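Subject: sequence -> structure tokens, single chain

Hey, anyone have a minute? Need the predicted structure for the following. Not urgent.
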Amino acid sequence: MVKKSPTKPPAEHLRESPAHDSVRLEALFASIGEGVIATDETGAITRMNQMALDLLGLTRADVMGKHFLSTIISVHDNGHPLDVFERPIVKAFQTGKTISARTLYQQKNGALLPVHITVAPIIFRGRPIGAIEVFRDLTTEIEADKLKSDFISIASHQLRTPLSAINMYTSMLRDGLAGEVSKEQLPYLQTILTSVERMNVLIDTLLNITRIESGGIVIKPRMARVDNLAREMLTEFVPAARAKSIDLTSQLPETMEPISTDTLLIREICANLLNNAIKYTPQGGRVHFELSETPKEVLWKVTDTGYGIPENAQKNIFLKFFRAENITNKDVSGTGLGLYLIKNIAESLGGELWFESTENVGSTFHFSLPKEILRS
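Reply:
Had a minute. Here:
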């Protein structure tokens, strides 16, 4: 009997050598289409792909073995360097968590590059032994956003003139200034006026959003009592609540100390929350407005017994143009821009906006502002 020699395993099943693994890892690192920088536990740069070098105008000799914070310069809009503890890579090392942020990187020639950064710490046996940063150039996105904002701003302003004419002449027709109007014609004229008003509100909202997104909204603080502001606003919404037989109630402090804040922006937030609560609450429901304060914060709360927000829609509720399906099915008018707008306004004031909601039960929206920011 002829003894057969052992069969060799197929080449694809052979274990690859460490050297082969290293070459493949290096090729993978180099082929990533965004800038990638790796550091060791001391913050020294150990790897940097060609995309990162090209974006920053650097060479390998400029970076390899150098400390990340002194080599990769991050600055504010005014050109001043970020504080060390503001840097995402420092936060990643401190927290052990992935950190994302937008910033400006200084290129070798001194030009500033807008970037979005994501830094992940490399954890081994419970401690960070390095970090990986991925960043991408935001120049094209920012230019596109500016073009979009410019277009919206120009188009919105151009719409004002014809809408004003439509509003004026329709009002004149409704009031009989061009001859008697029949009872059958009046509802049609009123529908035109209502639609014009909705268009004007939409234009105002779009303009406010473009200002926020371009950093164009300037906060103009003045001393004011927000409890008096709340009383004024509640009075304005009584007719809308009464038209739907909604029980509009409130709980306000008897008096509050004046604070330094932008009352127009505060009014925008509260008006939007009250308007939404009344709009999305069925006939005969309840809306409750509450204002309170703690030693550190001023708190607003609007609770309704409305349609509520489905659980699967809640993560998207502050996105631009988003409207939950249960609302669109009921044909309630809206643009999906209001909450996006006031979320940005709240954050620009240093505050927070959040909510709890149960479908077919109702919603509660909260708005808070820290007193140390509000007080003069």
